[in-house]
Amino acid sequence: MRNAIRSLFIAVALVLVLSGASPAKEIVLDHSPVQVYFSPQGGCTEAIVGELNNAKSEILVQAYSFTSQPIAKALVEAHKRGVRTEIILDKSQRGEKYSAADFTAHMGVPTYIDSVHGIAHNKIMIIDQETVITGSFNFTKAAEERNAENILIIKSKELAREYLDNWEKHKAHSQGYTGR
User: Fold this and answer.
1) What is the pTM of this model?
2) Known catalytic residue: 123?
3) Per-residue pLDDT tens digits for 122-142
4) Which contiguous run of DSSP H or E holds residue 8?
5) What angle do CA 102, 139, 128 make, to 5 degrees?
6) Catalytic member of 73, 91, 121, 141
7) Using CA atoms in the order 29, 139, 99, 117, what is the torsion angle rounded to 10 degrees?
């Protein structure tokens, strides 16, 4: 119970910090299931892929660094099965030696670059307008295998609505990416 309360506190704090909303909106997550994963080797990638494989209607992504092949493949597979899938990435992904952005864009997944900010450092996924995946975890192989990172998987339509609003604001100023 103590860990669940701590996780909910962290989730609310993340919403307030990452949403960019002013003034901050308080959301109480009394009965929202939360799963917590830590890396390295903590199953973050596997948990994310599992959520993507279960998506039914929509997956919206914001990512700073995106090199994880399993996550990229799961996003493409969701797109192929008719799930609306869109990705917004930091401008650094244009020049990276390898970015999954090239793979997803070439596979037809609408992919955008947010170059308005110094760094578009969000690491979120919004699934079916009811699940939010967020935390320090970059969607990379290094994040799973070597880095000390974390994710929260939170089931909350209210929280997902806040993240969706923020995602839409970033999409509005992002540019389409067709890959190299």
Assistant:
1) 0.84
2) yes
3) 999 999 999 999 999 999 999
4) helix 2-18
5) 90
6) 121
7) 40
